[in-house]
Design a protein that fits this description.
With 191 residues, the protein is mostly helical. Helices cover 49% and strands 6% of the residues. Helix 1 runs parallel beside helix 5, helix 2 (30-49) crosses helix 3 and helix 3 (57-74) packs across helix 6. It comes from Campylobacter coli.
Length: 191
């Protein structure tokens, strides 16, 4: 229910987001998550440069399925190159793994807290309803506006964040294809 608002406002301020299930290790095992995001980038590059069309139908299908799965779980954090400096969590009860990981890594947690939440787990609690869609939208909107203000101030001060693109090699393409073909979720469909 809150996923739509989270995605909408995170994209408005250009921030990474998770609006589906939080995968354990998204912060504590960030290196592995980055490798999975890299696989997504490799598959998209193969689609872009046409090399996916040179594969068999089965291979192309397996890569497409892998891409969809990676996008569903990691699409919102695909441009996140380092661990976050802070996280904003809607529904700390449901997203307790995210809060635990952030606490373990000493990453500040900002979250609206309802009466069913433990305020000791959150660095900066915001008293409020974290269930109703309108309040979730309000919290997300306010957070997005604050982030955009902060970004504008950083730009004014001349602080620009560099972005670097790493070239995708043929070896990476082969590794991703081999992995997709070896996954057991193939249902025996033929070309």
């Amino acid at each position: 229910q809150a996923g739509g608002a989270i995605k909408e406002y995170a994209e408005k301020c250009g921030m990474p987001y998770v609006n589906h299930r939080w995968l354990g290790g998204m912060m504590t095992n960030f290196g592995t998550i980055r490798q999975s995001i890299r696989k997504l980038e490799v598959i998209e590059k193969m689609e872009e440069d046409g090399s996916i069309k040179l594969l068999t139908k089965k291979e192309a299908l397996m890569l497409t399925r892998k891409k969809e799965k990676l996008l569903a779980y990691l699409g919102g954090i695909r441009y996140m190159k380092t661990q976050p400096d802070m996280i904003f969590v809607i529904d700390t009860v449901k997203e307790k793994i995210a809060v635990q990981e952030a606490n373990r890594l000493r990453i500040p947690v900002v979250a609206p807290l309802d009466t069913n939440c433990d305020p000791d787990l959150v660095t900066y609690p915001i008293p409020g309803n974290d269930d109703a869609i309108r309040s979730v939208q309000l919290f997300c909107q306010e957070m997005a506006e604050a982030i955009n203000e902060g970004k504008a101030l950083r730009e004014q001060d001349g602080e620009a964040l560099p972005s670097e693109e790493k070239e995708i090699t043929d070896e990476e393409k082969k590794e991703v294809l081999d992995e997709a073909m070896s996954e057991e979720d193939f249902n025996g469909e033929q070309e």
